[in-house]
Amino acid sequence: MDSANREPLLQVKDLSIDFHTAEGVVHAVNHLSFDLYPGETLGIVGESGSGKSVSSLAVMRLIPDPPGKIVSGQILFHGKDLLKYSEKEMLKIRGNLISMIFQEPMTSLNPILTCGSQIAESLMLHKGMKKKEAMKAAEQLMRDVGIANAEKRVNEYPHQMSGGMKQRVMIAMALACEPEILFCDEPTTALDVTIQAQILDLIKKLNKERNTSIIMITHDFGVVSEICERVLVMYTGRIFEEAPSQKIFKMPKHPYTAGLIDSIPQISDVREALSTIEGTVPNPTEKLEGCSFWPRCSRAMDICKKEDPSVKIIEEGRRVRCWLYEGSAEDTINPDEESVE
Ligand code: SF4
Q1: Domain limits of the chain?
Q2: CA–CA dist 115, 170 (Å, integer)
Q3: Structure pTM?
Q4: Going by C-beta distance under 8 Å and a sequence separation of 6 or more, which residues neighbour residue 104?
Q5: Residue 54 and which of 26, 32, 187, 335 are 20 to 30 A apart at CA?
Q6: pLDDT digit string (tens) for 50-81?
């Protein structure tokens, strides 16, 4: 999607988030900056501990403080900083203008309320509907997300639904107030492949028909290829690469991105085993000199072990944090924003 001449709907600027743990301070997100445009589908990809889910919780203002602390940055929604909003003001935004669906619907659905009444609750709170009207709207929303016999299922409890159906209920809840931004945090990981494809199709349809901006948070580049126009790759709380999806699949620039893409199973695969990225994400409480990926990188050079590379814009809409591109870059991101502590 062409972002020229359009105002971003969401701008995350220089966001840093720490967690104070018994083992020490974890810098979960380090000077993160990105934009999201109206109607856009953006993927945030990374392994567990990359900071992708923490960043989305920060936009929703759901970071538990303590132990978490937003130590710097701005989160501009329609140009206004959500970090300056009171909790009362955030209640009008969260679940209304910005919604989220999680990986495991059972942790988000209330087991003692019917699915219909949980969807209706949001409509009564944010849209001022009366119970009867809200239940009717909930039934229609359940139909919209592909739940058959919605008139009957609206009165069923979460335990009466399959995993795929519960995820559809979660999506119906998230969409009840027609949010402008929908965060999807690994929404299909717990589902089997067929249901996963159906849920991704549904999210795609919502994006097209309602122009809802989607932020898909995932460890799986296969999901990104299905749904996202643009991708941010995160590692140890930093952006490693940003690019349009088509370009990143054709030619990943960052060694970490290349490793993630290489580990996607292909239909034409003749490999006996899938490629994996060797090693593990570094212990977040231990300070590692240089590029945080060097212990796992087959292309690491001496400088990588001593100094952290800055983020370079290597072409329009594409930025990379890697010493391999230091010489070839046209420009750097604001060094203050992207410098590493
Ligand atoms: Fe690998 Fe060095 Fe690039 Fe880090 S900076 S990804 S270690 S080549």
Answers
A1: 98-178
A2: 9
A3: 0.88
A4: 190
A5: 335
A6: 999 999 999 999 999 899 999 999 999 999 99
